[in-house]
Structure formats: C-alpha cells, structure tokens
Recover the amino acids of this structure.
C-alpha cells in the first residue's frame, strides 16, 4: 500500500525538457572566485534561463551574483518583470548586478526576454525583425523596470546570452559548423575563443527543439 501511494505513475511523470541548454563560465584570470552566475530552471511548462554579472570581481561580485541567483531560483515562476524587481531588492546590500533573462514556454512556442545592463543577447533565426530591448542600470541600485519583449521560438532557433567578459566581436558566420553541435559544446567554444583577459566570463546557449 505504501509503495502504491508514493510511486509516481508513468502517466503523470514530467516530460523531458524539449530544449538543449548549456553554459560555461570561468573567473577573472587573476581571481579564484567567479563573480558571474547563470540560471537554468524548468518550471511547469517553461524553462527560465539567465546570465548574471556581479559588479566588479572577486568575493563582493560573487555575493551579489549569488544573491540574485538565489532569489530567481526561489521565485522562478514569477513573470520576468517581477523577477527583476525582486532581484533589485535582494541585491541592495551588495555591489549590484546586471542581468539578462529569457523564458521559453513549451506549449506556445514562444520566448520572452528582459535585460538590465550590459549582458549580450543574440538570437540566430530564420525570422526577421528580432530585437531585444536593453535598459541601462544596475540591479540593487533602484534599476529601471526592464522592457519585456516576446518572440516566436522554433526548432531552428539558437539563443546566446553572455557577460561582458566575452568579446562581442564574434559573428554567427565565424564558424558555420559550430551551431550544429550541442549547446554545451557551443558555450565552451565561445568561452574559450572569445573570453577577455580582464574579466569574469559566462556564456549560456539554448538550442530549440520544438516547444
């Protein structure tokens, strides 16, 4: 009776996440502590991803990034705008962070994005007219409310988020065959090839299955 009561039946088991998500990160070359962080969290029928960059380097930057990540992980089901407001409050006793977040909703083939600060966001797609709106500011210091933009998402899409420890001079055309590899491989490759020598660096990649 006990086994029948607590065992999850096959019909109610959660389906696998229909996305390929990967990330790679390393600290400033002269630091042992990473002031960047990333989030990958599935909630109900969606996946929330984000890159967080604590202001500065070292322990103080890590405290800020971890405060932001901790809030997001505890409140991942909130709308993106509310998450940014919560992170702004959670980071007030820290140096603050800049952050970009995206939510990919499986059952509607849609993605929403929001950003405050200099986190790079790029979308490889066959569709035209994609544009991300970035607000200047630092979360933890009364940052502005981010602009949330909505975008269709399909099997051909690739989303890349990275901190400013990665040079923004890379192009989708640099290595055409790279984008056929898995998300983890792409993230590691971008980190290895384009990270700067004077900053923490983080890359997060999402490849679309059909959601």
């Amino acid at each position: 009776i006990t086994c029948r009561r607590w065992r999850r039946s096959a019909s109610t088991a959660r389906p696998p996440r229909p996305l390929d998500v990967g990330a790679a990160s390393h600290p400033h070359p002269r630091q042992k502590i990473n002031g960047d962080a990333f989030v990958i969290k599935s909630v109900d029928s969606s996946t929330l991803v984000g890159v967080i960059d604590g202001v500065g380097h070292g322990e103080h930057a890590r405290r800020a990034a971890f405060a932001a990540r901790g809030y997001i992980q505890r409140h991942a089901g909130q709308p993106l705008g509310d998450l940014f407001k919560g992170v702004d409050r959670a980071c007030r006793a820290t140096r603050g962070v800049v952050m970009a977040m995206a939510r990919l909703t499986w059952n509607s083939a849609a993605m929403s994005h929001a950003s405050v600060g200099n986190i790079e966001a790029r979308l490889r797609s066959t569709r035209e007219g994609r544009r991300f709106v970035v607000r200047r500011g630092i979360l933890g210091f009364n940052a502005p409310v981010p602009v949330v933009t909505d975008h269709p998402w399909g099997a051909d899409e690739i989303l890349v988020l990275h901190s400013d420890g990665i040079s923004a001079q890379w192009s989708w055309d640099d290595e055409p065959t790279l984008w056929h590899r898995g998300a983890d491989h792409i993230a590691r490759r971008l980190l290895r090839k384009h990270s700067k020598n004077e900053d923490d660096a983080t890359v997060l990649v999402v490849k679309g299955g059909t959601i």
About this structure: Helices lie at 2-6, 58-74, 80-90, 183-194.
